[in-house]
Amino acid sequence: MKHLPSSIRRHLAAVRAVLVLTVVTGVVYPLAVTGVAQVLFRHQANGSLVERNGRVVGSSLVGQSFTDSSGAPIPRYFQSRPAAAGHAYDTTATGASNLGPEDVVDTLPAPGRTGRRSLLTQVCARSLAVGRLEGVSGARPFCAPGGVGAVLRVFPAAGAATRAVSVNQACPATPFVPRYQGVRVECARPGEDYSAGRTVPVRGAVTRVAVPPDAVTAGASGLDPHISVAYAVLQAPRVARARGLTVERVLDLVRRHTVSPWLGYVGRPVVNVLELNLALDGE
């Protein structure tokens, strides 16, 4: 080996380093971590699976839908928060929508063009649907009564508005406000380009919001297994009616399955939806 050219010796040393590191980091380390996890944290290492009558029904770490075959919420179950992971709670497509607070203008479907709902319209539509399901008002600021974003595109000239379009309400819809700065508000014509106008979200007169934020927004992972205590309390009367239980009994189960903030102050109290629904099934 000493008589080999220095360039070859360096290459052989590099090959040995690759082989050693491959064995250490690709075999020894994973086996050691897996072994420790299986001994000390077996339940967590295997996915924190939840069983009922000997059958795995889910994981306490992964959310799931409680809907029927048509996608409608099952009244006797608490509903999870919306999911941005693929279709409903798809563990193979975890991730957020990557839409931000300035995403307020829809792309209306038109011949040769697929429509897209803005984040604002998604929130408005979810709030309206939750309100109808729970028997409360689904109204919230910046939302039109029909469950779309209350947004205008205003075309000014000489400092004054000359045209105003409710860009998220396709014709022949009636705009959520009849006039803006003295100008009649038009409905949007699919396919027409309104990008030259100034975007004006309209807050509206809503002062009290009954539907909590986590009922209308998706978690960053798209697989959040928890909901807020406020959202659980909102759903309690519906679940109680569907199951023939008292609201007090359902709220008692909500309290039992409320998870306190980590270390007592990091985050907020949340409710694990799967575990709560399983407890209800055991009543």
Automatic annotation (TrEMBL):
Signal peptide: none annotated. It is a single-pass membrane protein. The keyword ATP-binding applies. The chain crosses the membrane at residues 12-32. The system is composed of three essential subunits: KdpA, KdpB and KdpC. It is found in: Cell membrane. This is Potassium-transporting ATPase KdpC subunit. Its main location: membrane.
